[in-house]
UniProtKB/TrEMBL annotation, chain A:
Top-level EC class: lyase
Domain of life of the organism encoding this protein: Bacteria
Broad class of the protein's primary localization: cytoplasm
Cellular component, GO annotation: cytoplasm
Subcellular location: Cytoplasm
Keyword Lyase among UniProt keywords: yes
Keywords, in A-Z order: Amino-acid biosynthesis, Cytoplasm, Histidine biosynthesis, Lyase
Gene: hisF
EC number(s) given by UniProt: 4.3.2.10
Protein name: Imidazole glycerol phosphate synthase subunit HisF
The organism of origin for this protein: Deinococcus ruber
Automatic annotation (TrEMBL), chain B:
Domain of life: Bacteria
Protein name: Imidazole glycerol phosphate synthase subunit HisH
GO biological process: L-histidine biosynthetic process
Active site: residue positions: C89 (nucleophile), H194, E196
Gene that encodes it: hisH
Keyword line: Amino-acid biosynthesis, Cytoplasm, Glutamine amidotransferase, Histidine biosynthesis, Hydrolase, Lyase
UniProt organism field: Deinococcus ruber
Entry GO MF terms: glutaminase activity; imidazoleglycerol-phosphate synthase activity; lyase activity
Listed Pfam families: GATase
Length: 263, 215
């Protein structure tokens, strides 16, 4: 039976992992993407996401090194996102060793990027990442969520469900859904939005943004109908490990990938 | 293995025909103890102990790239001569006659049958089949000998090898329909999942390929 996935996400700037990876901060190589990837592999993470927040060309090159190093060292799927704007960017990162590439703002700006990347490299490696916020009461478009870009500053006017369905039609293989009202609040994932998106597409849906406690993971994978849950700070701060999350999910009857050792 | 008893192991070819990144696949075979080499021209195949066929992407594009590289004839004659072949993901699907993904495109025909598509339907499983799923042994595939099950491996695919394809042994996985996730038929071996992305289980399977198949 297919298992629910738990996915830590790491922000990378100029080839180093940044932003509060606290469980590792006493380690002299706290920002080393390779060591962190290996630590999460030990914790039974099902995949890893590296998100490049570098703004410079030189930093982007370093991201290719990160992908290559990590892909050679860990035996798990690796997704890279951040600043991917062209089929050429896809090719570079895939050749470096990434298994999947996530696109966000660039896909809103140029939806054909999804189609082109999917045609070139297969739907399995195209993750459409969507940032969305609930529309204010009395909004002309009625109840629902709008898609945002630019780190949540720019309302595109696109409706979340319409964009998710369009992403599927264009050839995305997976959706990663970040409801910004919940992001960073640790108040839990947005179950309603996640469930609606998951029911309106045939693609696997990764819920992102809002994880703070064990219940949040269980809720989004059941009531939220998500196939996977992604989290950053709750793992980096060491409050929860991937292992403890999975043990809790298993205890409550969800199917997760168990620890395994060869005979 | 004691140094005095060390036998010279012939290298294992990991084919690079332009069908995607082969580096993590190559690295995993090395980690499992094999002298794996990335091979990009047919004349380098001479003397190889086994041939690994990775693959990702669309069946038509992958087969076209494979044929363009000139690997078809030497692969088929190596297989006929008993050289172990190991297909991975679309590389498994390529071993069949054909695929519903690209009607009319000839596969390698080492395993009679046609690759089928998971049918997305309301209430049915999502496509692609993506994530960690369990494999259940059928018979005694050397890739799975004494492997503790249930074992979970990483899948990402929209097409599958149906059970009407004949096999000596292997493993079955269920995703709406049951399909071959591991298949062994004579010297032909294949996995639908990515052993190079499947953690300790994947590594254990590659080690068995080395120990049980290559000897």
């Amino acid at each position: 039976m297919l298992t629910k996935r738990i996915i830590p996400c790491l922000d990378v700037q100029n080839g180093r992992v940044v932003k509060n990876v606290r469980f590792f901060e006493n380690h002299r190589d706290a920002g080393d993407p390779l060591l962190l990837a290996q630590e999460y592999e030990r914790q039974q993470a099902d995949e890893l996401v590296f998100y490049d927040i570098t703004a410079t060309h030189e930093g982007r090159k370093l991201m290719l090194d990160v992908a290559a190093q990590v892909a050679e060292a860990v035996l798990m799927p690796l997704t890279v996102g951040g600043g991917v704007g062209s089929v050429a960017d896809f090719r570079e990162l895939l050749l470096a060793g990434a298994d999947k590439i996530s696109v966000n703002s660039s896909a809103v700006k140029n939806p054909q990027l999804i189609r082109e990347a999917s045609d070139h490299f297969g739907a399995q490696c195209v993750v459409l990442s969507i940032d969305a916020k609930r529309r204010a009461a009395g909004h002309a478009q009625g109840d629902g969520w709008n898609v945002y870009v630019g780190g949540g500053r720019v309302d595109t006017g696109l409706d979340l469900l319409a964009w998710a369905e369009q992403g599927q039609r264009l050839g995305a293989g997976e959706l990663c859904l970040n409801i910004m009202d919940a992001d960073g609040t640790r108040a839990g994932f947005d179950l309603e939005a996640t469930r609606l998106v998951s029911r309106s597409v045939d693609l696997p849906v990764i819920a992102s943004g809002g994880a703070g406690k064990l219940d949040d993971f269980y809720d989004v994978l059941t009531e939220g109908a998500a196939d996977a849950a992604l989290a950053a700070s709750v793992f980096h701060f060491g409050e929860l490990t991937v292992n403890t999350v999975k043990a809790d999910l298993k205890r409550r009857g969800l199917n997760v990938r168990p620890a395994w050792a060869d005979q | 293995m004691g140094s005095a008893m060390t036998q010279i192991q012939r290298p294992v070819a990991v084919l690079d025909y332009g069908g995607g990144n082969v580096h993590s696949c190559h690295k995993a075979f090395v980690r499992a103890g094999m002298d794996a080499r990335i091979i990009s021209t047919p004349d380098e195949l001479e003397g190889m102990a086994a041939i690994v066929v990775p693959g990702q992407g669309h069946f038509r594009q992958v087969m076209e790239a494979f044929d363009h590289s000139g690997f078809r004839a030497p692969l088929l004659s190596a297989a006929a001569a008993g050289t172990p072949i190991f297909g991975i993901c679309v590389g498994m699907q390529m071993l069949l006659d054909a695929s519903e993904e690209a009607p009319g495109v000839a596969g390698l025909g080492l395993l009679p049958g046609t690759v089928r598509r998971f049918e997305p339907a309301p209430g049915a499983e999502k496509v692609p089949h993506m994530g960690w799923n369990s494999i259940d042994k059928v018979g005694d595939s050397p890739l799975l000998r004494n492997l503790f099950c249930p074992a979970y491996t990483y899948f990402v695919h929209s097409y599958y090898v149906p059970l009407d394809v004949e096999a000596d042994a292997g493993a079955i996985t269920e995703y709406g329909v049951p399909f071959w996730s591991v298949l062994s038929q004579g010297n032909i071996h294949a996995t639908q999942f990515h052993p190079e992305k499947s953690g300790e289980v994947g590594l254990a399977i590659l080690r068995r390929f080395k120990e049980q198949v290559l000897g």
